[in-house]
Amino acid sequence: MSIKINSLLIHGGTDGDVTTGAVNVPIYQTTTYKQDGLGENRGWEYSRTGNPTRDAAEKLVADLEQGKYGLGFASGLAAINTVLSLFEAGDRLVVSDNIYGGTFRILDNVFNKFGITYTIVDTSDLKKVEEAIDDDVKAVYVESPANPLLTVTDIQAVAEIAHKHDKLLIVDNTFLTPYLQRPLTLGADIVIHSGTKYLGGHSDVISGFVVVNDDALADKLYYLQNAIGGILAPWDSFLVIRGIKTLGVRMDRHVDNASKVAKWLTESGYVSKVYYPGLESDPGYEVQKKQADGAGAMISFVLDEKYDYRKFFKNLKLIILAESLGGVESLVCHPASMTHAAIPADIRKEVGIVDELIRFSVGIEDVDDLISDLEQAIVNSSKEEN
Ligand SMILES: *Cc1c(COP(=O)(O)O)cnc(C)c1O
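That is the input. Now the predicted structure with pyridoxal-5'-phosphate docked in place:
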């Protein structure tokens, strides 16, 4: 029976425990499995290679992304590390110009050492993507909406360009989750997640996922997952499965709150710019509407120069200053000194990650309280009064 995403969130992957009927997948806290004789195992050998709880989480995320194969990792970066390990010295990647800082760091300081290089491109500009592709390029790597300026890339159009040149398209779908956007159905070859964010959803588990459809690509990735070993633990797999059950209701509230906050900020007079692809005035609005079922709940804004951003962060009472995003609680961060500090200052300025830029992961609290907190924190950070 083909079921819709709100049912898949609860019954997708491995639905409960076939042996006992327990409605939840048990936590198989084991490293190894009894073999009945030489070469006679029951499908499980060693938990780095495979574990039933991780398997359930992997199948669930694959189902949600409408993919055939899912792989679970100890973190989003462990997932990214494994995907980047598909490439060889001399290969190059074309990468979105505002991506997660850690993705930039692993490319720049780890894979660069092994001769895998990258070119940074504004992937929302299709001409620039096309121009950046040459023989050495093996893949295009996109975040949409990208971090932290919420730049939207037309995934389907970039997939067509990549495939015309026989390259892979990799999409980091962390910001929207499969509830709002399914890149494989738009032509992407590999989808990456930091499950730490909306999938887990409660800021209590670090995790990562990769989903693909292609059999040969899946074989290579399973090989690398086992060879590198950055796998998702059984307990953490359980937590992600539990989080995913409420992904739909959480995302609905997240998106509703975010669109109200974005509208309020735009009209408030306190900010000089709001980045949110759910606003009709946003340059990404049309593409976002075409390729996703919502604009997500990440907003970035530039505080007007009348206000002191350091004071603003100090003044917040409900909204928490912290790294990360995608949890039920509202979090703000300062990309220039926190999430994107790994990006060199000149590139940061060039792409618009200015010091007054504030990134807001809108939580599922009462939206009136969020707006009140923002307002009092901004008003009390005025440079003139103090
Ligand atoms: C957090 C994040 C990552 C890295 O994930 P971890 O789970 O922290 O390793 C990668 N991409 C995006 C878009 C993220 O937000």
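Residues 75-77, 100, 102-103, 143, 147, 172, 174-175, 194, 196-197, 206, 208 surround pyridoxal-5'-phosphate (CB under 6 Å).
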